[in-house]
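Q: What residues go here?
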């Protein structure tokens, strides 16, 4: 059974920083894509950032220049460095891993709360 676990969420003041981490267990194959999604109260879940097997990254316009996604040292780990946080970044952040060979399968973490407030 593949499991993804997020960590690093919490309460931070506007302009502050947080670093989210995600670690997968129970997987043999490397995820082709790993990413971070978030869901704010009353809104749909949206893509924040993702990183592909070749290293290419993709960011939501709302976080470009502030967030950085990177692979961890261990297999199927991923980090999200969040700087210059704004109140509108407040959401539950979810880690995602995808296997895209022939078919497509997604795996999700339980989520970690990020609250940006003064």
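A:
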């Amino acid at each position: 059974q593949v499991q993804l676990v997020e960590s690093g969420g919490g309460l931070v003041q506007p302009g502050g920083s947080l670093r989210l981490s995600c670690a997968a267990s129970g997987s043999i194959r490397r995820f082709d894509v790993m990413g971070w999604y978030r869901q704010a109260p009353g809104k749909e879940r949206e893509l924040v950032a993702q990183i592909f097997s070749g290293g290419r990254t993709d960011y939501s316009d709302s976080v470009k220049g502030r967030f950085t996604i990177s692979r961890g040292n261990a297999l199927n780990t991923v980090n999200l460095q969040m700087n210059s946080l704004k109140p509108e970044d407040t959401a539950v952040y979810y880690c995602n891993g995808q296997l895209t060979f022939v078919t497509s399968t997604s795996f999700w973490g339980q989520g970690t709360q990020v609250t940006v407030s003064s």
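A: Context that may help when evaluating the design: Residues 99 and 105 are 5 Å apart (CA to CA). The longest strand covers residues 91-99.
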